[in-house]
Batch of 2 targets.
Target 1
Amino acid sequence: MAETATLTQAPARIDFGRFPRTNLCHRPTPIEAMPRLTELLGGPRLFIKRDDCTGLATGGNKTRKLEFLVGEAMREKADMLVTQGAVQSNHVRQTAAAACKVGMKCHVLLERRVPGRDASYETTGNVLLDDLFGATHEFRPAGLDMNAEAEAVAEALRAEGHRPYFIPGGGSNPTGALGYANCAQEIAEYTSETGQAFDWLVMATGSTGTQAGLVAGFQTIGHDLPVMGVSVRQPRERQMSAVHGLTQKTLEKLGAEGVPLSRILVDDGYVGEGYGIPAESTMEAIRLLARQEGILLDPVYSAKGMAGLIGMVRQGFFKPTDNVLFLHTGGAVALFAYQDQLIASMT
């Protein structure tokens, strides 16, 4: 559908040095071919951007965002990071680790967003690592405005004499999205340096910051690579609107022109029963990547994104000659919280 994104010269560069930032991330992350999955599906050539290899606390996409968020917190002389997420939040785990890295405390709110899980769901996987990193946490029932809840807790902590810095869920605000504007520049530079162009970028989209940052980054440097977000939670129109809103705010922060809603691409066909509930296609994606490429996906985000890519290949969405890049957002630690379903899917 898209023309191959090619560059005849080095891409334009964004001056990220004008924003507060601290070094938390292994960059650039590798881009690898997936030849066995490509052959199995008989579709376009598939590649993977290994943002599960960003380094902090087993890696993941939130580390790029936290470089800018924690940099801003340090500028404000905060002594504590406060954030929120679902119980098995990858973002919370990486935020807790980032706090350790810079000598801050971390307090988090965990939303019991996923129904029907047993008691171990709240003690294993990401929660185990949250505790290991020394984060304090409290739970909330599903359905609340979790950012408002966390901001209220931050205010209470401030009244007690702390200097908290509030980070929204997923690190998804214009400051956090700078991390993926930077990743967009990294992908464009890879294309320029290697001559390996891509026709599509596919990824899981949830709290919106990763997709918004990529679209904003490509727009700012003039690199025409369409970004297809596979929704892990919301219906297509709602997700598109949320991503578009943050994209516009991020472009404003970068001093660049906005983009129309039509630039925001979302497929909501792989959500299944809801957030954190793996569909059959989710479990298939986990098995295929593990057994074809030796790569671990997580059951909440990256596997739903990969299920979308697999489904699009099977439906003939891509041209046979396309080069399709998948962004791996990390999160394999959460596999341990879904052990029963994984075992059942392998029998």
Target 2
Amino acid sequence: MTTFSIRQSKSFTGLMVQALDFVAVWSAGWLAYQMRFFEKSNDWADLPSGELGLILVTALFSALFFGKVYRMWPGGSLAAMVGRVTLGWLMAWTLLLVFLALSKNAGNFSRLWLVTWLVTGIGLLWIARVAAFLIMAQMRRAGYQHKSVILYGDTRMLQTVRARIEQATWSGYDIIGAISPGDDFDLHELDARLKPDEIWVGVSMAESATLEQVMQSLRHSVANIRLLPDLMMYQILNHGMTITVGIPMVDISVSPMFGSRMLMKAALDYTVAAIALIVLSPLLIVIAIAVKLTSKGPVLFKQKRHGWNDQEIYVYKFRSMEVHNETDGHVTQAQRNDPRVTPLGKFLRKSSLDELPQFINVLQGRMSVVGPRPHALKHNDQYVKLIPKYALRHKVKPGITGWAQICGHRGETDTLDKMEARVQHDIYYLEHWSLWMDIKIIVLTPLATIQNKNVY
């Protein structure tokens, strides 16, 4: 069976997804209108010109806009695709409301219809995304969306790539040949005979002469040629390529928060923090009064921590300990049966209710809802010398909750092993960040808080 290259089918896939998005948003607007005004009209085809135009423009805008919010790629997980299209629709719908308000047309449209459109749109877009995922999976099984690859080299990176491609059958890549330096077979001859879509060259950073020979041998090749530098000995964070002043650079340790990613995370942070403070305001007032009545001292405890780019920030918590002073900047973690913790404070710490004022930190732009937990300055100075990758945590804003916390690494870190485990989970979060992952962590945090027994 002849395979159909990704180069030829990539544009078709993108158009297919955009068409499904357009149909989903259009259908959602139409259905929402019929549900809202069904009692006034028995004609399901009846739709006023104003609503018709609004639905048409929004559906077209959404189909184009979603492509900038999330990325489609061969083998992308269904959860990630659904999460991104949900975010895209929420942003598109919010922009629609802003447009109606600024153009002074908001009063011309039913608010109930717009809200119904929002909910219906999410449901239909989920269905469309599942359909797109199944169609792409079937296309790959049928031989479409495949890209043939020749591997050259013998580095550890190349070996890792081979193993991952062989395991990830959904990726769309097929290894059709491999050759190592010193083999009798010529790379140029292999390329001419197999005509691959891609050639991946794995050489160490010191083998510039070998790379020059490879490029000379492939000077007539029409395949995409990619270099796999041997960087396995480094901790790669947010790996990729960056073009700076016209010079290609390999990203070895880069913050995952940039461009649209930063905007998406900020939108989630401010939305969640604002809603949380509004909804929880009665509880916050009750806790504040209880803290004030049960022990002497301020309601809020304010402590310096390290934030994004290692900048010092103040982090707020409900005071859970008796007021006390520690000498020489020493910070003692709370331990089991710690006499400094008040009876109310014990409950607040166990339930994590003492962390709620940090939503104020989020609105201030100092923290994120999800991210590595901020540590006391003294602890940072200590662990940055003991754990080589510790400083990578500061490439994003610290969070109220995080991947380490929902995985059980919350509370006292009385041993170096515990802190190393927490740091490893924080780095995993930085390497695999997505908006869907943030939402997942937020949803799982209450359950993780209940199950955790390591907080005193």
